[in-house]
């Protein structure tokens, strides 16, 4: 769908610079930003934790996994498989 948005000039210029630094277009940058805001950082990063994994890890506001403290109420364990899967998904 096509739409028109009005941006303040300084924001537009900064966005163009960021897009160029990332090797993308302004359109791509806007899509990425809207995905981040509308679906949350985990989904925007392409990281989905299973229910079991969510007991030991969460996705921070920056889109990266954060392991929960061991003193939490749950007795779930962080496994090598969980760490490897998260690392693999984030490097795709």
How much of the sequence lies in strands comes to 5-15%
Overall body shape: elongated
Low-confidence stretches: none
Give the radius of gyration.
Answer: 17 Å
Biggest sheet features: 2 strands, antiparallel
Number of domains: 2
Oligomer: single chain
- Mean pLDDT comes to 76
What is the CA–CA distance across the termini? 28 Å
Strand order of the largest sheet: 1-2
Task: Walk me through this protein's architecture.
It is a single chain. The chain is mainly α and 92 residues long. The chain has 2 domains: 1-40; 45-92, no CATH class. The protein has 4 helices and 2 strands; from the N terminus they run αααββα. β1 and β2 form a beta hairpin.
Condensed summary:
By secondary structure, the chain is mostly helical. 52% of the residues lie in helices and 7% in strands. The protein has helices spanning 9-22, 26-44, 51-54, 80-90, and strands spanning 57-59, 65-67.
